[in-house]
Amino acid sequence: xxxxxxxxxxxxxxxxxxxxxxxxxxxxxxxxxxxxxxxxxxxxxxxxxxxxxxxxxxxxxxxxxxxxxxxxxxxxxxxxxxxxxxxxxxxxxxxxxxxxxxxxxxxxxxxxxxxxxxxxxxxxxxxxxxxxxxxxxxxxxxxxxxxxxxxxxxxxxxxxxxxxxxxxxxxxxxxxxxxxxxxxxxxxxxxxxxxxxxxxxxxxxxxxxxxxxxxxxxxxxxxxxxxxxxxxxxxxxxxxxxxxxxxxxxxxxxxxxxxxxxxxxxxxxxxxxxxxxxxxxxxxxxxxxxxxxxxxxxxxxxxxxxxxxxxxxxxxxxxxxxxxxxxxxxxxxxxxxxxxxxxxxxxxxxxxxxxxxxxxxxxxxxxxxxxxxxxxxxxxxxxxxxxxxxxxxxxxxxxxxxxxxxxxxxxxxxxxxxxxxxxxxxxxxxxxxxxxxxxxxxxxxxxxxxxxxxxxxxxxxxxxxxxxxxxxxxxxxxxxxxxx
Length: 484
Ligand SMILES: NC(=O)C1=CN([C@@H]2O[C@H](COP(=O)(O)OP(=O)(O)OC[C@H]3O[C@@H](n4cnc5c(N)ncnc54)[C@H](OP(=O)(O)O)[C@@H]3O)[C@@H](O)[C@H]2O)[C@@H](O)CC1
Ligand SMILES: [K+]
What we know:
Blueprint: E1 2-4, H1 7-20, H2 25-42, E2 49-54, H3 58-72, E3 76-81, H4 89-97, E4 101-103, E5 116-120, H5 132-143, E6 147-151, E7 173-177, H6 187-193, E8 195-199, E9 212-214, H7 217-221, E10 238-242, H8 250-262, E11 266-270, H9 274-280, E12 285-287, E13 299-302, H10 310-320, E14 326-328, H11 331-338, H12 341-344, E15 350-352, H13 356-360, H14 370-381, E16 384-387, E17 393-395, E18 401-403, H15 416-428, H16 434-453, H17 460-481
Parallel strand pairs: 2-3, 2-5, 3-4, 5-6, 6-7, 7-8, 9-18, 10-11, 10-13, 11-12, 13-14, 14-15, 15-16
Antiparallel strand pairs: 1-9, 16-17, 17-18
């Protein structure tokens, strides 16, 4: 798992480390790591042009020292000082010694010819959207030819939440120090950060335990282990699915297919789309009876395409009254938002899977702080909340959060949510902890989306078709990563 550390946690760890290291040592580690990534991106230093946008804090210091490294290797480096009286003195001296040029914000011509632009305007000390002068430079950098590289955090992005008020530096690469900050991988910030490179400056042992994480393929592989010798089709958990309707069986077919393709244990379907599901998936055990008469299951998925009429409401109440894990999706979310106590009074795990509009039905808009919003709803309902988005967020009622790393915009198409709930139900039936399981489902869904998107625009059925090879691939990567 990759821990996502807040600014407060990074500052606290820095304070400990600063007291134990010679003055300036941490900044040297940061700047050397930054220069190394820049050299890799440029391919060579000699003859290249680098422009560094330099604010009045330590973030600007990093940019100046990295600029000095690049200048010493033959790059033509220009530092544009936003606040000339406050630029990091030692960094400025180092850049000058290495032959770098220094100008003020009124002379940013270098941006139009740069091969690489370093954004050292503000890092974790930044507050709010960029001020007008900085915003103008960031916008000019965005339209220029240079590779935009953010130092620690793209200036204008809130490092904790990913919120952007107004303008931020649109990086293609972000070189971040000590720990990945949540704002680089979630919400609007994710789009401004681009590819994130983590430079180890020795903070690790001093960092508080993170409260947010990204899963890796290795972590997800642990949720996808093949059956062992002693397993039969019942022993590893059976998932029950309540989805679709006689008129619209599509959601039921997608959800059931996704569950089957994720874990080929037993999948039961109970609902009015029984004929459609039977025709598509002879492998599933299908009934048009009520969930209670469908046979034993270890987890339920309820809601995709069920509608919200009285029958649907009574089936939802029946499923939520069980002591089994339940995935509440789509139409079931609309009904649960009207009667949140149906969820609150449960003691077994519940996972809600809203997109932004469904989330708002529970009483508050998502807003710019997606992790915070998901945490608040999870705590209020005592349920895991999987908030869908380009970077899907999962929040546990205890505050632990996960941010998905595998999302792709290709997934923004009809029916992909039904596939996610089928994957999630299949994994939840094995009895693993619900928040991490939901994060694993989002990760696998994203990987299937990436695979399906490679051959052109995807439809939800493509995801189901790509799931088995994707499970195999993630399992294989996990085995490789664990050295097995
Ligand atoms: N501690 C260490 O040893 C290490 C720290 N490291 C590095 O230090 C960084 C933290 O440095 P920091 O605390 O000096 O704050 P920093 O991010 O430079 O921001 C303050 C500056 O931004 C400006 N500014 C703010 N908002 C703005 C806006 N909206 N628009 C425009 N400008 C804005 C603000 O202006 P002011 O408000 O003061 O006028 C001030 O000039 C951290 O991210 C990492 O890169 C690494 O080297 C590792 C070792
Ligand atoms: K920055």
